[in-house]
Design a protein that fits this description.
six-stranded antiparallel sheet, about 35% strand, Peptide Deformylase, alpha+beta, globular, 2 helices, binds nickel (II) ion
């Protein structure tokens, strides 16, 4: 278990499409997920995708539990999703401020679908299926975007709503 180095925007690896995991129960996947949680917590993130620590695999983790970077966010249980897939349940867009550990210190207003269903595999290989809305749905869409090489500024519609979190009037 270790805190890994986070790749920052500008690193070409963050723009690549990640590969599916063949065996979700492989020990190296369990070790990767341990490192992902350690790294996410060390930086007070609410989510992390494997490409952010230089592993081009379709694995995301997320959790919102009294997070200092998102003090007003609703709680989201700690979740591992291997080979995740998203189905949009409500195409209405919600606009809210997002950050990303690969863009330290920055925030941008990003449109996301308001309600989704997501599926994937858990660490033990069992299927996960869930519906989510609001901030929970936003995190899953943000992390799944990382698996396709998409960083949140690429989703933004108004670049005036982008800046440093210590300066923006949020
Ligand atoms: Ni991110």
């Amino acid at each position: 278990m270790s805190v890994r180095k986070l790749l920052k925007m500008g690193d070409a690896r963050l723009l690549q499409r990640a590969k599916p995991v063949c065996d979700a129960t492989a020990p190296e996947i369990a070790a990767l997920i341990d490192d992902m949680f350690d790294t996410m917590r060390a930086y007070s993130g609410v989510g992390l995708a494997a490409p952010q620590i230089g592993e081009g695999l379709r694995v995301i983790v997320f959790a919102v539990q009294d997070n200092p970077r998102y003090p007003d966010a609703p709680q989201v249980p700690q979740t591992v999703l291997i080979n995740p897939q998203i189905t949009v349940l409500d195409e209405r867009l919600e606009y809210a401020w997002e950050g990303c550990l690969s863009l330290p210190g920055l925030r941008g207003e990003v449109p996301r679908f308001s309600r989704i269903a997501y599926s994937g595999l858990a660490l033990d290989g069992s299927p996960i299926e869930c519906e989510a809305e609001g901030f929970h749905a936003r995190i899953v869409q943000h992390e799944c975007d990382h698996l396709d090489g998409v960083l949140y500024p690429l989703r933004m519609q108004d670049m005036r709503r982008f800046g440093f979190e210590d300066t923006l009037a949020l």
